[in-house]
Fold this sequence. Notes:
Shape: globular
Distance between the termini: 42 Å
Strand content: 5-15%
Radius of gyration: 26 Å
Structural class: alpha/beta
Number of strands: 7
Largest sheet: 7 strands, mixed
Mean pLDDT: 81
Order of helices and strands: HHEHEHHHEEHEHEHE
Helix content: 40-55%
Strand order of the largest sheet: 3-2-1-4-5-6-7
Amino acid sequence: MVDFRYHLASLMAVFLALGIGMLIGNSFVGMASIESQNRALADVQRNVSEVRRQVQATHRENVVLQTRLDERDRAVRALATAVTQGLLADHRVAVVVLGPPKRPETVTELTNMIVLAGAPAPTVTRISPDWLPRDPETRNTILARLQVPPGKAGIEAANRKLAHAITSGSRTAALREAAALSPGLQLDGDYQTPVGAVILVDASQPSSEETLSIPAEDVTERPMLTEWRGMGLKVVAAEAETAPVSLIAFFRGLDVATVDNVDTSIGQLASVMALVIGSGNYGVKASADRLLPELNALPAPSSPVSPLPSRTSPP
Length: 315
């Protein structure tokens, strides 16, 4: 995606300078000659014409760049079908979306790529960071359904229980009851069958890096990722390339595979490949080790893919 903010800032600076110049010039009206005023006006007109020319050139450049990005995206998606074919055959995957993605179609594109890789349609769970309602009665009812003691100390345990219910295939009734009571918890798919791998698409968009150091019970990601790792699942934690604050360093500390550009076709391909490998840090940011997993680390298309592990017993 082309970012216009830098161009806009430059243009605003130009117009601001022109405005200041005209303001200063007006303060001398009556003192300067008509000839000098005409020269100043001509200079302003030339500057405005130059700004207009730059805006038009920038627009043409952005159109060309967006066309190239679209062509690259189509090429990557065409290649992804060949690269990932059969990699997730007979494997079940859960997609968990934390917060509303800035680019909503990301989730649909990612799930489509998972299916093209041979997996059954994944479950898609959308969770707001504040999915536990503030209303004490409703909150305690949800905690009771998940067998979590009420109170502040129960938040971390509730996130762990929720993570387990989403992926284990057990406690499906409790999960659906919680979703019926919480507007911040949305379910889509078959939750009665255990999964072997999870992709967490983190779109919670923290306001600052202070989020990385707040207590464990106040962070939704930490207990969930820890629970999935404890269940022996393969876990990929992903964020958008345009995320205002990157959480990749935080995810790496929890020993999960990471992808820092899941809102792009390359990031979605990396996510599917990382599900098979189960490790690595991929993407375009400084925290990534490489853009994509190595192809020779993937099973050969003719070779059976080893089952992804899962655990069905409740924690």
